[in-house]
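Weekly modeling sync, notes
Attendees: S.R. (lead), two postdocs, one rotation student

Agenda item 3: backlog of single-chain predictions. S.R. asked that every request posted to the team notebook include the full sequence so nobody has to chase files. The rotation student volunteered to paste the first one in as an example of the format we agreed on. Action items at the bottom.

Example entry:
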Amino acid sequence: MKEAILYERLNDGRVRCHACAHRCTIPPGKRGICAVRENVDGRLASLVYGRLIARDVDPIEKKPLFHFFPATRAYSIATVGCNFTCLNCQNHFISQYPREHGGRIIGEESSPEEIVSEAVKAGCRSIAYTYSEPTVAIGFYLDVMRLAREEGLANVWVSNGYFSAEAADLISPYLDGINIDLKGISDRLYREVAGGNLRPVISSIERVFRAGVWVEVTTLVIPGLNDSPDELRWTAEAIYGISPRIPWHVSRFFPAHRLVDRPPTPVETLKLAYEIGREVGLSYVYIGNVPGEGEATLCPSCGARLITRAGFLVRENRLKGGICPECGAEIDGVWFTA
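Predicted structure, as returned to the notebook:
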């Protein structure tokens, strides 16, 4: 247990957490919505500092990040806890663990030095803070991120985007890339499915983009919830309003956790979303969870196929230093020459 960052002390022993957009006011002995930040005698404690529930080596394409050091590996870590309660969470055994196990916190003790050393030994180009919402462990992850940057590793987050402006300002100097989950463009969807609301997510996308972080956005297309042509168009337009350069991943839903009363997303719906994104003017649109469909990076100027993928595997990369070899257009992203 370690004192958390991003909080203020209030009267009567209460504290107010400023890590995420919930901004929980927490009485003594209680926890915030994330279930891993607790008021201990008038001070906010992080219950997950240095306690990893998961660590693995993943292709960066799995995050998904398609325009960030393609075909490299990311050392991927997670703690338990989340500030959302998504009905369809595929990682609920991690994200919801404290909530579903009477507040119990589990995880293997790990130091920032150990994590960075393991990432280097594994030949990873980056460390990914993923599998559950990284904001709930922001103090621990900031310590890892600073050390990773010193060792020449990049830092990437996979996030629901429900972090506060203060959190965004803290992480942005050390954050190289992020994929933010934009569930749709409806407050009702956010309230009923995730336990939050829309506006802070849009603000987070805009804030980290303006800070110079490479941003990609994923929308899980769920039948009957966010799959109408209007909803898809409004979502694409929200991204376009920040920047047409932000890649949009429209991903196939499969029944999971507590949302099992809906079928998998029809592939035709995802193809429609893809076409809508291109019509709106987004430069890069991808289809996720459907191998062989909409995975290639195309030049937005001439349409040339630049990066060919099969699932998380890059089969061909024709980019030359981020430049299209056919027309010479600059392709947005974080690239390098192997």
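Discussion: group reviewed the output briefly. The mean pLDDT is 97.
Action items: rotation student to repeat for the remaining queue; S.R. to check formatting next week.
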